[in-house]
Design brief:
There is one protein chain. The chain is α/β, with parallel strands linked by helices and 376 residues long. 31% of the residues lie in helices and 24% in strands. The chain contains 9 helices and 16 strands. The protein has a 6-stranded mixed beta sheet with strand order 1-2-6-3-7-14, with helices on both faces. β4 and β5 form a beta hairpin. α1 crosses α4, α4 crosses α9 and α8 packs across α9. The protein is elongated and about 85 Å long.
């Protein structure tokens, strides 16, 4: 695969991405995630790298750590990637790998197998060329990012605190923009308990949990503040048993997004302290901040400027942006210079038309390679 006149030939790299895409890896299929982890580990074994495999737990697959054989005695470069996708097993029949013009389609090809493979390929080219980067390189492939990284967060934070730089291979945004800030993410469950009664014969004896849920939804909706970048979304609701019964129970799942830790502290407290407005009805809220905000600090800004200069030398303009979606970069940005969105450009993450843009493969693979070569 590597003996080509252009080691960053897009079609050659795309062949490798295809092999990863055609192993479907929904988070809840750990055996399939582990199949891909084995394929990747086998690829690293012929390189100057040490492989560590952390067994999966809680229904998730294994995590894979590949460390360069050099530079591990000092803080180096941590590359964060995830192997899991949101698409269920069999989705590849609906979205098979195919090429149409500048687009290559497939489950997880954009989010984020394309970017994960670019980093692997860039490291491989570094090694094949006989180079040793100024810093050691550690590539971490986790199995559970799409469900909030419950089994990998501790590992990500530990590796991030040891690193000097963190590079995240999540896909690019809005025409190839790099990500230098992400909103923090909170998740909450709301449990409401009322009093059941016959809705026709004795409605006065009942206390509707659903009616109180409406109050809660209104209170949560009032917390939205677009100017501050605060969004509170009630995404799941359920309650009651029959239309002729005053609902005894109701439930909601809530998503919170915030730009800063100050806003996170304020909004988490507000949500956890929601109270019932109805006599005889209880409201209990459980949850917390799942991912802290990834704010663009000075170290992250300097890392972006370095990448921007490298991109200009390669021949494209690198522009940064903030996004509302979370990533594993949220866990490292507070203490380590972090640059996100280094994966492929494309569109349709999590959809039936997910695709990467083939024209983005070579320049972005070269950018990762140059970051490995030049970060001091």
């Amino acid at each position: 695969m590597l003996e080509t006149s252009n080691p960053f030939d897009a079609r050659t790299i795309l062949d490798g991405i295809r092999r990863w895409v055609e192993i479907e890896t929904p988070t809840d299929a750990p055996n399939e995630v582990n199949r891909l982890a084995t394929l990747i580990a086998d690829g690293f074994r012929e390189l100057p790298a040490r492989i560590e495999r952390i067994p999966g737990r809680s229904g998730c697959g294994d995590h894979l750590v590949a460390r360069s054989s050099w530079g591990q005695e000092a803080p180096g470069i941590l590359v964060l990637s995830h192997l899991d996708t949101v698409h269920p097993l069999g989705f590849i029949e609906r979205l098979p790998f195919k090429i149409e013009g500048d687009s290559a389609f497939g489950p997880g090809i954009y989010d984020m197998k394309g970017g994960a493979y670019l980093a692997y390929h860039a490291f491989r080219q570094l090694c094949v060329g006989g180079e040793r980067s100024p810093l050691g390189i550690t590539q971490l492939f986790v199995s559970d990012e799409e469900i909030g990284s419950p089994t990998s967060r501790e590992l990500i934070e530990a590796e991030g605190q040891k690193a000097k730089y963190v590079l995240v291979t999540e896909p690019a945004r809005d025409g190839g923009r790099i990500v230098t800030a992400r909103k923090g993410v909170g998740r909450f469950d709301v449990f409401i308990k009322g009093v059941p009664a016959h809705a026709g014969a004795r409605p006065e004896d009942g206390r509707s949990a659903i009616r109180e849920l409406a109050n809660v939804i209104a209170a949560l909706g009032a917390m939205n503040d677009p100017q501050r970048g605060i969004t509170v979304n009630v995404g799941v609701v359920r309650g009651g048993t029959r239309p002729n019964v005053i609902a005894e129970e109701a439930f909601a799942e809530v998503d919170l997004r915030v730009l800063s830790m100050a806003d996170a502290d304020e909004l988490v407290a507000k949500i956890l302290n929601l109270k019932s407005r109805s006599e005889g009805v209880s409201v209990v809220v459980k949850g917390n901040l799942n991912r802290p905000p990834y704010e663009k600090g000075n170290a992250g800004a300097a890392l972006f400027e370095h990448a921007k200069q490298l991109a200009a030398e390669i021949g494209f303009e690198l522009i940064d942006t903030a996004t509302g979606g979370g990533s594993d970069g949220n866990f490292t940005a507070a203490h380590t210079a972090t640059l996100d969105g280094l994966g492929v450009d494309g569109k349709g993450a999590h959809t039936h038309y997910e695709q990467l843009f083939i024209s983005s493969i070579e320049p972005r693979a070269r950018l990762l390679h140059r970051l490995f070569q030049t970060l001091p």
